[in-house]
Amino acid sequence: MNTxxxxxxxxxxxxxxxxxPESLLDxxxxxxxxxxxxxxxxxxxISVNPADVGVREKHNYEAESPKILGWDAAGIVEQVxxxxxxxxxxxxxxxxxxxxxxxxxxxxxxVDERIVGKMPRSLDxxxxxxxxxxxxxxxxxxxxRLGISPNANENKSIxxxxxxxxxxxxxxxxAKLAGLTVIGTASRPESTQWVKRLGADFxxxxxxxxxxxLKEFGIDTVDYIFCLNDTVQHLANMSEAxxxxxxxxxxxxxxxxxxxxxxxxxxxxxxxxxxxxEFMFTRSLFHTEDMMKxxxxxxxxxxxxxxxxxxxTLNERLEPINxxxxxxxxxxxxxxxxxxKIVLENF
Length: 347
Prior knowledge:
Low-confidence stretches: 256-260
Number of strands: 16
CATH topology of the largest domain: Quinone Oxidoreductase, Chain A, domain 1
Subunit structure: Homotetramer.
Structural class: alpha/beta
CATH class of the largest domain: Alpha Beta
Main location: cytoplasm
Keywords: Cytoplasm, Metal-binding, NADP, Oxidoreductase, RNA-binding, Zinc
Order of helices and strands: EEEHEEEEEHHEHEHEHEHEEHHEHE
InterPro entries: ADH-like_N (IPR013154), ADH_Zn_typ-1 (IPR014182), ER (IPR020843), GroES-like_sf (IPR011032), NAD(P)-bd_dom_sf (IPR036291), Quin_OxRdtase/zeta-crystal_CS (IPR002364), Zinc-ADH_QOR/CCCR (IPR051603)
Distance between the termini: 19 Å
Organism: Paenibacillus elgii
Number of domains: 2
């Protein structure tokens, strides 16, 4: 084997329970070459997301080529394609990649530069890798889908369901920066403390009816709801808590929720509620005309980090990046009790 042309990677040939040692495997694959507007990134740190678990579970057939997961990375640009204009070799970058391409769980990774941002100067690779997917989701959900203004939100409120998770941890901070009154949901003492530290004004328990808890804080209804958890489970509570002509954004598709039957959208009819979806891979999946917006928002996010207005959501580090540690991270996510982000660093 010519190891100079090979790279370390972690992948799966078929779906197996994460407790199975073969559910994720250490591999050696050919090192790719950048073409077009692709960057070849030397990956220094990766983080795990529910999307990783979801894609692994869907990969339930035997394949000749391994499935490489992972949609968060921070690293150094190794090479650039002939059409690249935004970055050069040696630049430190962070990004979430595309769900339509091989993932970031590899020593070297190809990514279109239009969805890559300059890495925050004040963070190390691990702290930066915690941010891209969840931050893009939070940013797009709040500002693109819900149409929230970055400022001038006095007397407006938002309820963030699942505020202690990766997306919620960023959304709470961005919503506070936008001037909103932020109500976050959490169900355990440790997750409640985490959300409070991020700046939420009030905390309610998402396992109990929302409106009675809101009324205890003098809040009848909220202007916006950002649901980062089971859409169907929370729909009835959301329909009660949202103000007439309010807006709801959800990120969990109904086919992933534990339910049977149809989504009862009529619950939102009488209040003329706007309901929108957020899927951060839409722009890269369909190569939309505004694909460059993810490059721009990641750069804006880096500036907020470096200015001390936003902080990383990294909560746990694992080292090195290998199959054993990645299985451990997946297992923690599958338990559904993780707070913030789990990051793996150094191959």
